[in-house]
Structure formats: structure tokens, C-alpha cells
Amino acid sequence: MGIIIAIIVFSIVILFHELGHFLLAKKNGVGVTEFALGMGPTLFSFKRGETVYALKALPLGGSCAMIGEDTDEVGEKSFNSKRPWQRFAVIAAGPIFNFIMAFIFSILLVTIIGYDAPVVYEVSEGGPAAEAGIQAGDMIKEVNGKKVHMYKEFRTESLMNTSGKTMEILLDRDGQEITVNVTPTLGEDGYYHILLYGGEYQKTGVIDTLKYGVLEVRYWITTTVKSLGKLITGQVSPKELSGPVGIVNMMDDTYNQAVRYGWMDVFLNMLNFCILLSANLGVMNLLPIPALDGGRLFFILIELVRGKPVPPEKEGWVHTVGFGLLMVLMVFILYNDIQKLI
Questions:
Q1: Do 26 and 102 lie in a common domain?
Q2: What is the mean pLDDT of each run of 10 residues along the chain (342 residues)?
Q3: Whole-number Å distance between alpha carbons of 128 and 196
Q4: Which domain holds residue 171?
Q5: pTM of the full structure
Q6: How many domains does the chain have?
Q7: 284 and 312 share a domain?
Q8: Catalytic residue among 18, 69, 157, 315
Q9: Is 18 annotated as catalytic?
Q10: Contact 274, 105 (CB under 8 A)
Q11: CA-CA distance, 307 to 311, in Å (whole number)?
Q12: 159, 186, 202 — which closes off a domain?
């Protein structure tokens, strides 16, 4: 059951991404030949106007096939016949719709359970946090000069401290601001820890719900970007990457743990996965990598600077090579995922 729910979550995230391309293509007069959920053989389809709407066998992926998108066709409804800003809007709509989806789901999540206020509820005796003087009940306001709005921001900052660097933490204790310096210790798991636990969910009013909805999306976007940065600089091993198989397995494990507490707990956990995956997909697709939305946007920006488009055959060649490299990366990630399951 957990795997089925995971596939549904993936499908929702991908469908919303492709819906962005679809709606902006229609808005700008670009013909869409097929709007599909899934990949591979078609299980079910119907046609409305010029567009075939299809459900395909493999539940991961989707497509919005536009006239002239990958060819040099320049007819009236061709993607290539549109102005650069129109093409830019059509391509950018996919990632932007993912951010919109993440925001809508974040508002729903905060409305139901509130936000995780950065309140300390436990400090391990003898640990780095206790030795620095942090106490249960303290409110974390800043870490290393960065404002903290939610406990997950502090937790991630701690987890990303892969060098054991001393952390400067600004606390609010009964209305008084206190600054402490905490030096993490290396645990048996190979990560640095300060042995502090927090996060107290608090309900908010309408305005603050919108505020924390934005902060929730910003958190996942910045976390994705920081993780990519650490991957590029070698601070995170490529072996720690997870693809669809690894994520589905993680979601299945989460489902099996959450279902013991009821279906509302399952719903909230899957909602959180929707936010994470949607924000992550939005960021990844904006990277200037050939074959991704970001790569196509990059070529449109080049066109705006040069005053003329890059020859279609050259752009197509770059995207083909980029797609091939992405497939190699996906095979590597799939291998990693399978190794973790064995």
C-alpha cells in the first residue's frame, strides 16, 4: 500500500509540473500534440481538439509534447514560431507550477498542524549543547548569524555542519537574548552532533499561515540548493544520492510507521513528501543542464543576448548529449538505490 501511495504522490507532482507547460503553451498559442502521465506504452487515451490525453504504463514521468519543440518546424502553432519571452514562459511554467504546488500544500500542512517553532525541549546531559549552557525551553533565534524561523532550519544547519565547526547560536530565554558557542562532537555514525532536540508545533492565524507556507517552501528550495553545493564540492558523497526507487522505498517505510498512528498521520507525512518533491523538482529543472527545462531556458537567454537563436540542430545535439549523460547518472543512482535495498 505504501508503494502505491508513493507512486500516486510522484504522479501528482509530475502532473502539476507538466500542467504548467500545458497551460502556458495553450495560453501562448502553442499546439500540444500529447499530454501524458507516465512513460512507455499507452494504457488509455482520448483526443480533444489537437491534443491526445494519455495514461501510460510506467507511472514515473510525464510529458507535454508541443509542436516544433524538438524540431525546426515554424508553423503558426509551432513552439519555434513564438517570441523568446513566450517560449521562456512556457518552459519556466513547469518549475514555477511546482513551487506553486509546494506553497499550496505547505499552507494546508501549516493550517492542519501549525509550524515547528524552534523551541528546545530536550538537551542531552553531558553533550555539547548542555556544556554550552543551552536549556530546555530556550527559543533558537539565530544560528551562525542566520535567522531561524522553524526548527527544521536549525536542524538542517546542524546536519550540514560536516566539518565540526563551532556554531554560534542566539537564544531567547524568558525574553532575554543569550549567545552561546557550541562545538559538535563526532558520533559513531560519522556525523557531527550537538545533542539538542526541539520543534514544538504551534498553530497560527491566517497571515502567519501564509508566512510560514512561504518559509516552508523557501526551506526546501534552499536545502536542495545547499545539498547540491555540497555534492559539487565533495562534502557529500554521490553514493548518498537517491532516485525514484530510493525515494519510493523511503516513502513506503514512512507509510508503514505512520499507519500505526492512523490515516491522518499517513496523510500528513505524504503531504510533506509532496512539498519536498515538488520543491526539489522545481529546483532541479531550473539547473542549466541540457535536456532539462533550465537548459532550454539557458538557450533562450543566449538568443536574447545574441539577438538570434542558436541553430536548432546545434541546440538539439547539445540536448541529446545532455539527455544521454542524464541517463548514465540515473543508472548510477538506480544502482545506488538497489545496493541500499540489498
A1: yes
A2: 80 91 95 89 91 86 84 81 93 96 95 94 91 93 93 89 87 93 87 88 92 94 85 69 72 85 89 92 90 90 88 79 76 66 58
A3: 8
A4: 115-202
A5: 0.87
A6: 2
A7: yes
A8: 18
A9: yes
A10: yes
A11: 13
A12: 202
